[in-house]
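Question (not urgent): is this output format expected?
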Amino acid sequence: MNDTDKKLAIKEVILERLAEQRLPRLLDIKEMLNLGGKLSELDIEFLEEVLSDAGQNKHIFDENPDIQDLYTRAVDLYEEITEKALQNETLPDAAAPSLS
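Got this back:
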């Protein structure tokens, strides 16, 4: 497998993981937060993993202009989630839903 094939395979794996695992869970977390929920330890671990992966894989998105917008949107979603989670932490503990 040559270098170009390896890069294409890595890009495909990252996009598949984003579409099938990361985005659905991020959207579920966002919905839960919008309902007044608070992050569980599992949610926090997941968000830390997503942020770490995004940093490690940024060069792949930088090298592929066709998917840079997707990266930007995912980072924006992450920021929305963390901002809402911080807001919800200041609310009283009244029946907050959780994903975990």
